Protein 1
Amino acid sequence: MRLKNSYALSAFAGVTLVGALAGCSSTASMDTGSNAAAASTEPSAAASTGASTGASTGASTSYKDGDYTADGTYQSPAGLGKITVAVTLAGGVVTAIKVDGHATDPTAKAYQSDFDSGIAGKVVGKKIDALNVTNVSGSSLTSGGFDKAIKAIEAQASA
Amino acid sequence: MPELRFAAIGTSWSIETPDILDAALVTRVEGRIEEFDRTWSRFRSDSLVSTVAESGGSYDFPADAPQLFDLYDELFRATDGAVTPLVGRGLETLGYDREYSLTPTGPAAPADDWSAEVSRRGSRLITDAPVLIDVGAAGKGYLVDLVGELLTDAGVREFVIDASGDLLVSVASPRRIALEHPFDPSLAIGVVTMSRGSICASGSNRRVWGSGLHHILDGRTGEPTRDIVATWAIADAALVADGLATALFFADPAVLAETFEFEYVRLFASGRAESSPAFPGELFR
């Protein structure tokens, strides 16, 4: 279940954020210039929160084309982390998306760089798509923050 | 298999069954989840735990509540108080409140002592002072078990309940389940194969911890708590797996094994992973 890069933004509206046990915040900005390319994750985060890729391609709300960025935060056992999501809208459809997981926590930072360097003897990540699995166990640290950032972008784009 | 999808208690749920669930059973599932939420959600002003947070007194919890409280008692003991349902107030102080303000209103304070502040008689909870109960460490797993029970009672023998990564599995042919990379949901660090039981993960934003306990744990395990970035626990019940996934951040697995039967994986900030000897899966190295 992968999120396609181009489908109506309104599909994100199906992502449920309100709830008893999740907590994230976001700050939105129209700053489209800065996109520090840190370890970038693919936007499949939304897929794991149950956004249906088949849903609502006919947008009921109209969104202004343009580049949008918003920050989302997430709480890990090591503290508060932040991600930046940048989205390009054209014709009301997401044509490009980029997630920067610029970890502010030193632990998370070290972790990400350790993983990138693929040190022998340590676990390595494999693409879930290629694993022939039916389910995924885990609550990725960034998915909540991603959802929040997308919500903020949605609000910007429909304003 | 047909799949029922819905959102509840802040996460998305999926229930796979060989046949489409009949409407009456779906209604029972929804009703059970609503009942759980009305009791345990500290994010609802009308919930029972919100009432308990207002003033001390004697409160009647649902008849099944001791199952959840008993697990917390065991986790509290096994983790020297690191896992406690009374972290709520501290989380709220730090801004993890009903409005998700994420604005701290004061310094982090130690949690009230679960073993001293609160007494229980059956499903009745008695407290002198108002206490904020947060069952975030094991509540979701418990609700997964409750939903599984409803299915079993209705004669549904095969199912996979997936509450956003916390799973309860009862199937004839084993499932392959990916262990999601905590920082990149497109990646897995391993795969588990199971046909019965539960696997739950921790490392997300629902985690709870007792203030000032880092040092205790550092000394005992040699691994600072902050160095663990993700955990997975496998047990018969999702209640136990969910609670242990949190406890594995704070306690030596060997200590937990004195109380609980489980398999586990712990992932450290260094990228190193450890698993129990009989862990039914594979870690990618």
Protein 2
Amino acid sequence: MTSLPQSTDRKLGLVIDLDICVGCHACVVACKEWNTGGYGAPLSDQDAYGDEPVGSWLNRVHTFEVTPRAEPGAKAVAPARVVHFPKSCLHCEDAPCVTVCPTGASFKRSDDGIVLVNEDWCIGCGLCAWACPYGAREMDGAEKVMKKCTLCVDRIYNENIPEEDRVPSCVRTCPAKARHFGDLADPDSDVSQMVAERGGYDLMPEQGTKPVNKYLPPRPKQDDLAEPINLAALAEPKATGFLGWLDDALTRIG
Amino acid sequence: MHPANSVIFFTVFSGAGFGLLFLLGFATMADENASFLFLFVHFGIAFAMAVAGLISSTFHLGHPERAWRALTQWRSSWLSREGVLAILTLLCGGAYALLWMFFFNPIAPLGWLTAVLALLTVWATGMIYAQIKAVRLWYRLLTPVCYLLFSLAGGMLLFLMLHAAFFGEAGPFLSSVAMVMLLIAWAAKWWWWRTRGDAPLSTPGTATGLGAIGKTRLLEAPHTSDNYLMKEMGFQIGRKHADKLRLLAIGLGGVAPVVLILMARAFGGDVVWLLLAVIVHLLGMLAERWLFFAEAKHAVMAFYR
């Protein structure tokens, strides 16, 4: 049934910290590695070693340049900065990809809110990919069915793997700890706390999709310090005691 | 958006076929004693166009052998509703036609039901696109209205041509109705073009949320060559020819058929002029439908600007 659940008991999802992400693409590769052998058909590539390589990936990292707006009364405009931006399915509460599906292959689980595709039912019409404003769904070039992030549903409940591994592959692999997994319906969860403290936000709120995944904004850079820090001085520590007397004496002689 | 040939062919031909079927739903009121040949040709053309379009629409599927599953989710999905309604229309229209043709038993209410179902089918086709908020150009009630009006105009033009084929001339009343329907359909489409919002609903700033800090632009794409998203949603080819194609669509789909109907009125030999009118109209509609997809921009491209 491709109607959306009225509400879900939990809202499992990701919180991605744009202040921390270094754009290493490890999550992208780890996601492809796990999901090519996990839920559903492998994530295929076409012309992988040719001129126009293309393949299905469930998580991708874009890199943006942000030029801060000139603040009124600021001494100078802060310089542009680079923000690495990982993007995968946001497991929206009001997921437009689910309701457009004609076959019932796309569904949102009422217990944990994960949006999944039953690949045995998918006819590969591509309408769900058109309905998603985030580009979270990609048609597999070999299997001809729609692929999307499963929130590693085959890891997070998997009792055959060590407990610390029972998080999505992208979260487990992130060397900078920029990705966090948890229940965003529980206000006491770590992820909800992070969102509350840091002002976590929705992508494209104007599309009305109510994404579960949240993004934490980059912290403002301290470009407006009163005096620039003299880094050279820090490299030459001031000598004290006997060495200090010697330093002074030699300077006076010299 | 990527214009898939199978979907363009489907929406144009099924649209005209269902438009003709709508008119045939009221044919009992005009002539209950229509000949077998008359009914066979009329219903045959309507069904052939509708069915050819529907079959064509399965060609773009990754798994056409599972297409029957698309009939299950009519409670939530417009694509599913469209499939269910199309089949109901064909079943109902088939029963109506066969009872009339073989048992000389035209059942008027069955015809009316066929007409209503045909309209609902075309409406559902338009809603498949009009429901997609991520494509702002389509996300309007005017979108299915245009689909419906073009379907009716195309059906009327077919009816006019067949009328001329059977009775030697199209007649001033039916000719005028066809011209008015073409005019209304293209006026609606003109309004659809005029009222489109060019400002995208989503920008790189809202897509990433970084707009709160300042001006955002893509520095490095996540992949080195075009992926599925770019091919489906980032279709650019032909946008620079959009103005020319729009004139071509209006010229072939609207102006030329009206001129040809007038020529038929002026010079006689109706069926030849009107057959030509049907052909150029369908060609114009193919251009209109191609533009419908090629011109539409998708919200996801905000992540690539």
Protein 3
Amino acid sequence: MSAISASDVERVFRQEYGRAVAVLVRVLGDIDSAEEAVQDAFTEAVRRWPSTGLPPSPAGWIITTARNRGIDRFRRESTRQERHAQAALLDPGHLGHPGDLGDEPSQDGPVRDDRLRLIFTCCHPSLAPGTRVALTLRLLGGLTTAEIARAFLVPEATMAQRLVRAKNKIRDAGIPYRVPAEAELPDRFRAVLAVVYLVFNEGYAASSGDRLVREDLCAEAVRLGRLLAELMPDEPEVMGLLALMLLLESRRAARTTPGGDLVLLADQDRGRWDRELIAEGQAIVRQCLRRDRPGPYQIQAAINAVHSDAPTAADTDWRQIVALYDQLLAPAPNPVAALNRAVAVAEVDGPQAALSLVDALDLGGYHLFHAIRADLLRRLGRDAEAAQAYEAAIARTGNTAERDFLRRNLSALGPA
Amino acid sequence: MKQYLLSMYQPHGDPPPPEVLGPIMRDLEAVHQEMEAAGAWVFTSRLHPTSSATVVRVEDGEALITDGPYIEGKEHIGGFVVIRAADLDAALEWGRRLARAGTLPIEVRPFLGEYEA
């Protein structure tokens, strides 16, 4: 039997926290009590496991211990006060109550459903988007308040307060703990995917700070994406989001120099791309194509799969990429997607055609709009205008690595 | 069961002409009947415009009376409905129906405490 260290327990914590909290929220009917009980169970694990060894099912052990602790705590508190209210809480009818409007009755499904319920609670539209992200990372990802605060560059006290307010709102406003009814599902579901993709994007191109990539956030988003894929394998967009994140993640090592400088897709050393992630992402994209129920995440994944297919940048099938962007833009205008489409158009029809597309977009506040314009102007030999556009891009990015990259491009323009 | 306050926010100014307001009031009445039939309806009230409001406050033990709403805004609460609902989703569904019928934003806010079904 190998020795169990605190870091082993920490690993189990990270892996099983969400599952345990999800079950306990159902059992105890309250997020705070659930978190406390799970915390208690892990404290017990740190004390016990080094001598007893890892139990056969660490998750099962944690959940059982947390349940016993939670119910104990609950009884202790009931003897003191609020006996009445507490009794109401233990009433199974309290958990997952059927709504007034004829939605499905509660279903005490397996653990799987508990996590799904918790995700929908964390991503409820009545919570602010930033709060949804923080709650999801805290309750499902098992990140500490300090880690979430660091990831979003806010003081820990601010993040702690945000989480407390959110949990209070869930309790006081009666945000239900259940998978939404069929009619609301598509909207609610988009909110969940958006939260996971937000986490990924914040990790992939940190909006501020010194480092371009925050590996921890990307990894967390991929983990949440895998969880969603496991919970909702029949939703093509869930699979699309996972594939998209895997394909983007596969280029992480090549996206920055050892010194932390940004390397554009065209200049990346493709030998450093993670072949395993690419294979997994592409397999999912092919699955999605066969299913033929396309959506924005699947199409974006397909665009990235085209890039992954090209052994060198020059081999990229840009026509295919333009066609995919056309498909992405068909249902509704989306200026950011249109900007990316213009980048592909530059490769097919040249920078002049792309520039007229870019100039028609109303994206003046977005640093990449100016960066892409700058690059097109540079390729057209209009250096003075390119310089202005680089300046505009530099002024609008909070990320140090991106700013350095733009500065290098700016100083490379024309005679120094 | 919880109780929720559904407040209807309306812009300042004259109400829409009867040919517009008539159908809106009919639609609102229909939602109320649905609420009653579902056992969700508790109380409804409509308010006079904020120009009819008076503020009372106590300063140094004296009650001061002043004209006007306490908070000046572009919108004011024109009326409200109190409902009982199992949870926020159920309350929001009523809010959605009211907003659609009344063509105005609805704020949904929980009352403190739980209530008997």
Protein 4
Amino acid sequence: MEKNIYKILNELRPEFDFTTSKDFIEDGLLDSFDVVALVTELETNFNCLIDALDIVPENFTSIEQIIAVVRKNGGTL
Amino acid sequence: MLAKFNGIKISGVLAVLPKTEYDYDEETAHFATPATRRLKRVMGFSKRRAALSTTTSSDLALYGIRYLLENDLLKKEEIGALLVLSTSPDYYIPPMSNVLHGELGLPFDVVCMDISQACAAYVLGMFQASMLLEHMEDGKKVVMCTSDVLCRKDPEWKIGEPSFGGDAATITIMERDESAPTAYYSIYNDGARREALIMHAGGFRMPRTPETAIPNHIVDGKVRSYDDLWMDGSAVFNFMQKEVPPAIEEILSYSGRTKDEIDWYLFHQPNKFMLQKLSQRLGVPQEKMPWNIVENFGNSSGSCVGVDIAYNLGEALLTNRYTCCLSGFGGGLSWVSAVVELGNVEFCRMIISDL
């Protein structure tokens, strides 16, 4: 899942290196439109529907947080 | 607050759109990236309409009222009140309703009232019009206008980032009718979160100056000046998803309706994604909650719900009746909802202006 999520992130914002960021939001790698696009890609790739209340910046700050939110919403590996 | 009104109906809805249509792909072609095209797909943007740079909100509203008068859909002597809702008025003084009053040559006893309200304007206007009608003499009508020109521009001006805003006006005629079913309203506000959507400069707290026009602030990843509208996208999204569904559940319960009994959920349309998530949270079929206004005309703020009615129900409202749940939500922050029966109206249509 981690590898696939990095692939999605790199396709979303190819100009950034997500592996070196401690906080994707704080570091300016993802804005709110990117998060929306990311959610759509995660839902498609991991066959889940992410609850709207889980679409908050703190759930998209790191690869671990993103994996957690996908798993919480029934995403499949 | 919750409120209900008996014996008041909408008897006509007219949406007025600017003449200039902008195609998303053409408008963004000079800077488009894969992210720009992705935004189109995810947010459902295709076309929008923006007024010319010289057009004012009262111009659009006046165009609509004159259309109604010229086509015998409204008579001057029927007008008991002009109610205008806008966040882009012609002046601070006089109110825009007085501008319309003067241009139309209406009698002195017509009530003129302006309300500054953003995306919740249409439904809040219905609520205010209902209160006016409760105290108005028989046979008089409230002419409720929503109108904004926040996106006005010359067609030659190039945009620097994707835009999904639009301009529009709506003219809605409301009147008393003892046989009209009860209409239910809920009105909520949270001024503590007002900075989630804010245009800092232009009022008396921060008058516009050459300095306020300098785009030197980063807001949610975008460069903004104090003259621009600032939006904390995450905060606004979370506000809508957290506050609107319970308000809808509450007003359905207050009106004694189930979700299935609602024919249409005609909501404000910021973008496709937000509405998809709202329909998922509410457990309402997406087909009952259109998102084609922002897709085809842009987000016209307080006029969105009225344009939604005119475009999606249109002539069908002349002969049919639908139970509708309306909701407007946004700047303020405000969220105003209603459960109303719409139908058997005298007109319901959309026109394209020359503005």
